[in-house]
Amino acid sequence: MSMDAIKMLQGKKILLGVSGSIAAYKAATLIRLLVKEGAEVKVVMTTAAAGFITPLTLATLSKNEVPLNISDHNSWNNHVMLGRWADVMLIAPASANTLAKMALGLCDNLLLAVYLSATCPVLFAPAMDEDMWHHPATRSNVDKLISFGHQQIPVESGELASGLFGEGRMAEPEQILTFLQQHFQQKNGRKALNGTTAIVTAGPTIEHIDPVRYISNHSSGKMGIAIAEALADAGANVQLVLGPTSQKTTHPGITVTHVQTAQEMFDAVTTRYPAAGIVVAAAAVADYRPANVADKKIKKGEAQLHIDLEKTPDILRSLGDNKGPQQLLVGFSLETNNEKEYALKKLRDKNLDLIVMNSLADTGAGFNYDTNKVTLFDKNGNERSFPLKSKQAVAQDIVSAIIELQHA
Ligand code: PMT
């Protein structure tokens, strides 16, 4: 954990509301992480949550009594004070039932009484099965809570308690911790990546055959531009090295360098690399280029034309080979098959900290779409899958993972 991150939660008063979901077991790890970061934690839980994890466990870890019922000793008077005591109220896990009651302003348990009394910012981490998560009632409850100014911590995709795979799993405690740190950083007017220079590569490259023809691919640059904007929103000074595309950004935190070929992208990135703390390589760089570029248009002749190709420089591999101890390197992996195997190989071979796997086998993912579906693998063996989202939302997930890794 970096010194900055330690300062972020040191002495902060976190009121954790735990509702009834199997994910309640993660509350124990979350409390341990928060206490380790110097936060003061008080817990309120519903009786349904107590069926999944005991109040004694959470009281022991938080070093504070855990009231359950509104009629418990002192709870009636204290619910207002608890709501006022906290710097932030975090409801994790937030079950479908608790979300619905919060949206309606119902107050039939202590957690809800505290929530309604809370004058501090409220964050919630939903946890439920995929069908419940997608139900229009849940969707509108979440929208309503966001309209109250509450922040939703994104759900994850993966194996659910039902045994099915899908969206709705509560974020991991480490991710919730990062979210909280970002919350306090923003509140202090300090952004998580202030003072960091980040290089992002985006778009395709083109490799000339002759003055009128070239080899290229379908990359639009949308994914890389979304990442550049998310990094700049987080305070980074972003150098965007952009291949030929009609996509643009006007973000004031981004300086754009336009390039065409893999060699030009390599040169632009390499000269900027020593000053960079973070590099995200989202560009679809051509792996091969014509060994010789004809200086005049090649005339139509024989039935077949053979063009000798040679390898382009592997930008990311070269950065990985020369990575400094404070530099964090993020690559992408785009495949049509054996996606995980190839992604993990690139993570290892190119000496990356994080790799973002996307597959052309997933509808709505990859080139040119406004959406993408990614799985993140980091150098510590963690794997995190996300559902299909807008490229802006994917970029947020990637930037959160980068900040998390910086603090690890
Ligand atoms: O631009 P969009 O239309 O929004 O589409 C987004 C995207 C599909 C291009 C993006 O999400 C993506 O997957 N980018 C990487 C595509 C790719 O070239 O993947 P790869 O598996 O072939 O390369 C692995 C990594 O090495 C990538 O980070 C790539 O940028 C990098 N590389 C590859 C070759 C090379 N010569 N130099 C490199 O730096």
Automatic annotation (TrEMBL):
Residues 12-183 form the Flavoprotein domain. Pfam families: DFP, Flavoprotein. The keyword Magnesium applies. Its cofactor is FMN; Mg(2+). GO terms for molecular function: FMN binding; metal ion binding; phosphopantothenate--cysteine ligase activity; phosphopantothenoylcysteine decarboxylase activity. InterPro entries: CoaB-like_sf, CoaBC, DNA/pantothenate-metab_flavo_C, Flavin_trans-like, Flavoprotein. In the N-terminal section; belongs to the HFCD (homo-oligomeric flavin containing Cys decarboxylase) superfamily. In the C-terminal section; belongs to the PPC synthetase family. This is Coenzyme A biosynthesis bifunctional protein CoaBC. The gene is coaBC.
